[in-house]
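re: ur question from the group chat, yeah i did fold both. here u go
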Amino acid sequence: MHADIGGLRTEMHTDIGSLRTEMHTEISGLRTEMHADIDGLRTEVRTDIANVRTSITGFRSELRLEIRLMWAGFFALAGIMAKGFNWF
């Protein structure tokens, strides 16, 4: 299914055999994609807003990495301050 109405463009594909579904939506600079494959068990959700991309599958791992780096930096700074004040 395809639909173009002014700045709104939508696409939708569905295969019932192995249940493959795709959905694309574009509104001006906002683009949303969703893919789902049941046999390969692949699910993908993407949102593009003027070159800013968010991927739900990679978002959690990136967020955890940032939190770990933040805590590592905090403890490194605390260690440097402790050495400076001769606490150890």
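okk and heres the other one u asked abt
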Amino acid sequence: MVDNNKSEKNFEILFFKVYRNKYLNHKIYTHLSLFRRYRKIELNSDPIEILKYREYFSYIQEIKYNGSLELPLSRFSFPILKTIEIGRFSKTPPPENKSYFTSIDPTSVPNSVDTIIFPRDEDINYTCLRNFPDSIKTFKNVMFSKIIDYIPSGVTSLTFNSMNNYMCIKNGFLPPTLTFLDLGLACTFLGAFPQSLKTLKINRKISGAIQSNLSLSSLTDLTMSHVPELIELYPKTLKKLSIISKDHIDLNLNSLNGLNSLETLELDIDSLLIEVNSIPQSITILDIKTASIHNLYRDMLPISLKSLKINVCLYSFRIISLPVGLLELNCISSGLKDLDVGLLPESLTTLCLAKEKNIGFNKPIKDGYLPNSIKSLDFGEFNQQINYLPHSLVNLNFGKFFNKQIIPNSLPSNVEKIVFSSNFNQKLLLNSLPLKLVHLEFGNNFNNQVPVGVLPQSLKTLIFGNRFNQLFLPGSLPSSISKLIIGNKGPNTISCFNSPINENVLPQTLTHLEINCPRYSHPINESFLPRSLRIFIVSDNISFNE
């Protein structure tokens, strides 16, 4: 009989032996760094010239190719390659008025590849799917001219990108393994859907022939661009329905009453009418984006609702009542411009307020505005002095307009994560940060020195934005910190940080240090770096002294 506890202990001992071995540790982090760098590559010119450096081939999982020559896959080995994306078509003189895919030879595609993404090109009217290896399970942006002549039998995911108004899929052409199908703008007629189909997307008005084939017992996720007309023909097993249209559509949700298995409803339409009890009582996730809707009153939303995301392009829109069991609320509109006592249910754990100026909540918070159950709060437009917040809060995100000084002891003691907005640039006072804080992130405008004793000893992650340029005082960084980032990564990084890092500044618990500062001009003394450091990322311009 195997002793699992003893085996786990042996694995743990082995892991730490490897981890503490400097040579092996260096190798591990070298491979991780190479994988992060070369996992996805983009080729824009002669592939032979670019691919001749073979030392990183074993790290490539995705290739995006934009070249005009054929991608020479057969000349090289890509052991973990999964996805090939063609950024554009190369064309040969078209036989029978067809332009077809020639950027890669299907027979040269490695068996490790499972996804092929064709380009979106209106000049191409035919995509040949023949001769690809059986490992390919996903084809995206497939284009046919009227008649679909071949689809591999093992495909599980298929996305069309046809601009034609007429495309015929004959009975039996859709493989029995298919679980995901996006018809794009194609299809005025087609045969039966396979019984394996779980997700279907139709991006144009459908005919009665298609509607009559929608009653699949396997179908659980349906996306449509027009309002369904024959709701009784839809599968009773449907769990997610999305109606997304750029056309002018008025939808009365009473038409959905027969779908009693629906759990997720996504609506992105021009005008929406919600009446009392018109939304199925099985709905738990509701996502609404519309230009016209009445205020939300009592019993308009189902009591089963747990998550609500609402984006209304109407300044006068207001949320008057919410279900008592709601857990998450994301209001990207003026719906919560006024918070009344008792409006938000006591069950609410996550609240995100509108971020755009003049439409979101921006008034002093009083006792009773926010429920005591709330754990995560994203303030959006808010820019008021903090005097009261519920003690249940754990995550706090100040919106991009916030720039008020934090009064000592005004933040709840249970808060573990704080993210300040890009505008925030206030001095930190003693006892202004909660004692249980684990993650602290400043926006790009913050540029104030961090006094000794202000950061709590619980802090593990500390992030500064691009304009931070202050000298760290000995003892200002608590000994608990394991991750320190200065400046934002990216090709357009303009970090101002140029203060020397002196001795006894960096905590001995630090394992991850990033200095993304192209203008940093001080050599870093390696003896000042803690021995605990495992990940050290610096800009190319930074030098070291021993």
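fwiw on the second one: The longest strand covers residues 264-273. Residues 4-20 form the longest helix (17 residues). idk if thats what u expected
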